[in-house]
Design a protein that fits this description.
- The chain has 325 residues and is mostly helical.
- Helix 5 packs parallel to helix 7, helix 9 runs antiparallel to helix 10 and helix 12 packs antiparallel against helix 13.
- The radius of gyration is 21 Å and the shape is globular.
- 77% of the residues lie in helices and 0% in strands.
- The longest helix has 20 residues.
């Protein structure tokens, strides 16, 4: 139980290194007591969250890649072990829901979450994860209600506020979004995850100066944060500051494993009047993030359209959005 408690405490930092440490503590707890169901569930949680954070920061991986399926398989095995010990453990169903969401099985994920809610109606993490899944499915009003409940259940956990802030922003409630992000930062002033999400939301609503401030702070805390680097670079581009855009783009191009460098390179090649090279860059990005990069398809379609390649454009739409044909 002590090893389990240490793991839960360490996991709250939401840093990748700490998540790996938490995973080790949960494994220790299971070694000591193999029948400790919550340790199995927490092991699943730690595995799930690590994969999400690695993808969030720009590591090249796809939801259907062998690595992701294998790693998430470990989380699913841990959650099912917990259910063998305690078939009515809502936290275990929540972990399975999160695993299914990571693997882009949205309907399956929702089923697990509903089962978890029936068994553990006061489990705050469950509400945050369910809100993400509803948001991903475009059900913003339902996601908003669930995210608000996660804050009610655990008002001192920053990720609950940051998820709520993001959904507020997508729902057009800018002031509420900013307020929730500020509360998240009061709770964890040096949270790279919260700062990066904050930059993302500011960028989406056109607050490019604020996006730069949040993203630069996140990047200063973690130089491997490719997504923060992306929002700094793109915000300078949106503000028309070409010198700063090029300076930060150069940093992105030097970052090993930063998939978003391809998107930045696309902009650079468009500015330089090199459409074929621009197309190559965004196709590289699409190859990495095929199932979750609709905007990549839009960019490629845009380039094909400008190049007069109507047949290629129609084939592209058929591959990714067949319902439109």
């Amino acid at each position: 139980y002590d090893a389990y408690l240490v793991g839960r405490h360490v996991m709250k930092s939401r840093r990748l290194d700490d998540l790996a440490e938490a995973q080790s503590h949960f494994a220790d707890a299971i070694d000591i007591d193999p029948k400790f169901a919550l340790a199995h569930t927490s092991l699943a949680d730690a595995i799930n969250v690590q994969i999400v954070f690695r993808a969030f920061y720009g590591e090249a991986m796809s939801r259907d890649s062998e690595e992701v399926i294998s790693v998430i398989g470990g989380a699913q095995e841990a959650a099912r072990s917990a259910l063998e010990i305690n078939p009515r453990l809502g936290e275990a169903y929540a972990a399975l829901g999160y695993s299914s969401w990571i693997l882009d099985r949205n309907e399956e994920s929702g089923g697990f979450y509903e089962r978890a809610l029936a068994l553990s109606p006061n489990y705050a993490d469950l509400y945050r994860w369910r809100a993400q899944q509803l948001e991903d499915g475009g059900r913003l009003e339902a996601a908003l209600a669930i995210a608000e409940r996660s804050v009610e259940l655990d008002p001192n956990f920053a990720p609950n506020h940051s998820i709520l802030a993001r959904i507020y922003g997508q729902s057009g409630r800018t002031a509420a979004s900013i307020g929730s992000f500020e509360r998240a930062l009061e709770l964890t002033p040096d949270s790279v995850f919260v700062l990066t999400q904050m930059a993302n939301s500011y960028f989406d609503i056109g607050e490019f100066g604020r996006a730069i401030a949040a993203a630069r702070r996140a990047y200063a805390l973690n130089r491997g944060n490719g997504l923060a680097l992306l929002f700094v670079t793109l915000s300078y581009y949106q503000l028309g500051d070409v010198d700063e855009f090029r300076r930060w783009a150069a940093l992105a191009n030097q970052s090993d494993g930063n998939i978003w460098a391809h998107y930045i390179a696309w902009i650079e090649f468009r500015l330089a009047g090199e459409p074929d090279l621009a197309l190559e860059e965004v196709e590289k990005l699409l190859a990495i993030r095929k199932e979750s990069c609709e905007f990549c398809v839009v960019l490629i379609a845009h380039d094909h359209m400008l190049g007069g390649r109507a047949e290629t454009l129609i084939n592209l739409i058929g591959d990714y959005f067949p319902e439109l044909l």
